[in-house]
Design brief:
It contains seven helices and no strands.
Length: about 140
Amino acid sequence: MLFIRTVLGITLGLFIGVVVNGSMVQLGTVLFPFPPEVNFDTSSGMQAFHDLPVHFYIFPFLAHAIGTLSGCITAIIILRKQGKWVVYSIGYLFFVAGIIAVDLINAPVWFDILDLSLAYLPMAWLSMQSRIAKKS
């Protein structure tokens, strides 16, 4: 039974985290539409992303942080106290995805550092400090 819950916790945690992440990114593009010169299909369009004002980076950061947090909390709900390693594994997998994104997306260095240092593993830790984790 623990094996099934572990697989379910990892699977649903990653799924919920990715869905929340993608939803937040989409919401951000609705609230702060990119200028026409930003195009992720061309190298010049990617360079234009690098030069955007700060408010365009709020939702990507929130998407990464809240996506990771929601995925970790999902795993906690499913696994209860046995899930600590699963929670940190989910945080680590999102962190690896963040490193890949840093390599692919031409964001400013300040955003890359902020994103990688605060949006992934700290959210896994925060989920373990949550009331839900303490209650389980």
